[in-house]
User: What shape does this take?
Amino acid sequence: MAHLTHSQRQLIENGLRNRRTFREIADSIGKSHTTVAREVLRRRADSDKGAPGRVKNRCVHRRECKRMNVCGDFKCSRRCSACPECNGKCRFFREDLCERLDAPPYVCNGCRDEHKCVLRKKYYIHDVAEEGYRKLLAGARRGACIAEGERERMAGILAAGFRLKQSVHHIMAANRDRFTVSQKTVYRYINSGILQHPKRHHLPMAPCMKPRRKKGAAHKVDTKCRQGRTLADYKAYREAHPDTPEVEMDSVIGRVGGKALLTIHFNNCGLLLAFLRDANTSQSVIDVFNAQEELLGTAAFKKLFPVILTDNGSEFSNPNALEESRSGGGRRTRIFYCDPYASWQKPHVENNHRNLRKIFPKGESMDNFTQEDVSLALSHINSMARESLNDRPAVELFEAIYGKKIIEKWGIRLVPPNEVRMTPKLIAK
Assistant: This one.
């Protein structure tokens, strides 16, 4: 079946604006109503548009909240619920989402309450939809793309069905209009870990079937998740907050398919952190962030990692989960991305990887190592005298800035200069 044309997308937008049903729109363009529904779900665009004369406060507590001076401005005499600053500064903030977007027509086009709604909106705009379609065609050979919000919505539908012991086929048949991909693609997403929930073992036949050895094409999350998080956005944020410490993040792979390291570099002192993960997945990075927040405390986590620059690896493809505090403390960090194929834009962590590779050679498995082994290696790496630090070790400088208790929680210590060892034998098994 031929793909939708630009003119057909324009007719879809006009139909939505005129509050026509999917069947009515489908009849006008000669397509099925499921095609129209999938097109709208797949191509709808997020909007930060507010409402004229209304405060853009999107907290679920905004109607009954009586808090004041959350931002620290004690000269202000109005409630925080009457100020949009509450959205990003209140630790009790929880975004209110419109339930209408979970049901047809899935967008705000033609909504009678649009002019007075302050919640985040979604629109179907034919020019934007056409541009997204063209980008998808251009990137088709690099693997399937799935938007972050679409991934979460699809995972929710599947999880609800799996709780009732329903098969994937039944779930998709019962929610035909709500899936924008084929059944085969859904299975591929689950098996490859793109859908973190449900897991592969939730599939009825998975426990008795061996996974295929053939490695499929890499699945990348759609670049929409990086909107507002580009390198240009990072530079603008740095200009507005010049005193905020810079932190760079990356991954170091051992043998393909095995354990991997999540590396974090503090540019203000040169300290390198590394956390061992069972696999190089998005969920493993989220688990590290959650574990560190629990270990350090939310306040210390925010102080140490206020803003993080990383690359476009699929393991960093869920920025919302990385940014939001697990304890309900609001935003714990800010994630920004380098330009595609431009890892040199985070040079500090890349350069420190050279020291890490002296102990963990490229291509060799990390499966037999533990986090204690990694901490031992980090103790030696961070105890090296650095010319850029006036011949001081990174451990010493970090302790001067943040204190000794934090670095002790990571199991990193200062190694005497003559005992520093940078060879694989340091942690040989």
About this structure: The chain has three domains: 6-58+96-129, 141-221, 228-427. Residues 214-221 have pLDDT under 50 and may be disordered. Residues 6-58+96-129 form one domain.
